[in-house]
Amino acid sequence: MSDADDTVLLQRAMQHDRGAFAALVLRHQGRVRGFLRRLCRDHALADDLAQECFLLAWRKLPELRTHSSLGAWLCSIAYRCFLQALRTREREAALNALYTQHCQNEAETAEAGTELQARDLEQAMALLNPQEVAAITLHFSLGHSHSEIAEILDLPLGTVKSLLARALPKLRVHLTTDSGVRHHDER
């Protein structure tokens, strides 16, 4: 593989030739995946990030300076994809820790009659994704408004409203079905 071959393929790819870009992907995907695998230590995540890297590269081809090394440019995109994934995982871990702490606090203060309800709620909340859990907890347990939640979670207001609108029916179904069955069986 030579830089001259990359240059020809790159010029064709910049003219929206998908075949030329596919050839560039084939040439560089091994190095990009290897780089990401060392960073992630998770082959599946590295493969997902490599795919994301090449999708971004296709969209950002006009931004590539012709004097730049294509391999270096792709690695810089891959690294930014890795950092974004890392931030997302850290944010999800923080949300889960917040939820776990909240559940522990509620469980400690609950009376015997409400302990069963708290466990049912915990089980129902476990069915939600981390963003839904955070939105539900911030709104109903901590009393934050939709706009405050949007600011806390760094999400658009419409997304927060959608999260709550999707999560509430999931909770209702689980709490109505499972709680009803349990109480019926305990009689």
Residue fraction in strands = under 5%
Radius of gyration: 24 Å
Helix content: over 70%
Ends distance:
74 Å
Largest sheet: none
CATH superfamily of the largest domain: RNA polymerase sigma factor, region 2, helix turn helix motif
Number of helices: 8
**Which outline best applies?**
elongated
Q: Specify the CATH architecture of the largest domain.
A: Orthogonal Bundle
Number of domains: 2
Mean pLDDT: 81
Helix and strand composition category:
mainly alpha
CATH class of the largest domain: Mainly Alpha
Q: Give the CATH topology of the largest domain.
A: Rna Polymerase Sigma Factor, Chain: A
Strand tally is 0
Instruction: List the secondary-structure elements in sequence, H or E.
Output: HHHHHHHH
Weakly predicted, low-confidence segments: 178-187
Features:
mainly alpha; disordered C terminus; 187 residues; Arc Repressor Mutant, subunit A; Rna Polymerase Sigma Factor, Chain: A
Question: Could you explain the architecture of this structure?
Answer:
The protein is mainly alpha-helical and 187 residues long. It folds into two domains: 3-87, RNA polymerase sigma factor, region 2, helix turn helix motif (Rna Polymerase Sigma Factor, Chain: A, Orthogonal Bundle); 110-186, Winged helix-like DNA-binding domain superfamily/Winged helix DNA-binding domain (Arc Repressor Mutant, subunit A), CATH 1.10.10. Helices cover 84% and strands 0% of the residues. The chain contains eight helices and no strands. Helix 3 (43-60) crosses helix 4 (70-109) and helix 7 crosses helix 8 (157-186). The longest helix has 40 residues, at 70-109. The radius of gyration is 24 Å and the shape is elongated.
